[in-house]
Amino acid sequence: MPPKPNRAISENTEFIAIREAAEWLGVPFSSLRQYVSRGLLPSYKLGRHRLFRKRELLEALRQSTKASLDEVLR
Q1: What's the CA dihedral at 39, 42, 45, 50 to 10 degrees?
Q2: H-only helix segments in the chain
Q3: pLDDT truncated to tens, each residue of the chain (74 aa)?
Q4: CA–CA separation, 44 vs 21, rounded Å?
Q5: pTM as predicted
Q6: Which has fewest Cβ within 10 Å: 14, 27, 41, 61?
Q7: Are 42 and 56 in contact (CB under 8 A)?
Q8: In a domain, 74, yes or no
């Protein structure tokens, strides 16, 4: 029996679908859809498909977790 293909998504994959993105980020599918609808995460609409670039998702997450010194010292 031939081995099953590895379904792991590498960071170099250009585009991934919304369900793959939710799994890769470790968030529920419904939460990811809400983040996209609120404009918190970058995505692309191709017909009825929503696609993501992994590096853009990572950058958006990095930006959202950075705090300024003033925010930390409050």
Answers
A1: -100
A2: 18-25, 29-37, 54-65, 69-72
A3: 555 555 555 555 689 999 999 999 999 999 999 999 999 999 999 999 999 999 999 998 888 777 666 666 76
A4: 12
A5: 0.68
A6: 14
A7: yes
A8: no
Residue 7 lies in a domain: no
Tokens representing 13 are 């994959």
Q: How far is CA 72 from CA 21, 40, 60, in A?
A: 30, 22, 20
Total domains present in the chain = 1
Q: How far apart are CA 53 and CA 29, in angstroms?
A: 16
Whole-angstrom Cα Rg for the chain: 15
User: Do the domain assignments include residue 30?
Assistant: yes
| Domain containing residue 45 | 16-66
Q: Given phi > 0 = left and psi -120 to 50 = alpha, else beta, which region is 26?
A: left
Q: Report yes or no on 8 lying in a domain.
A: no
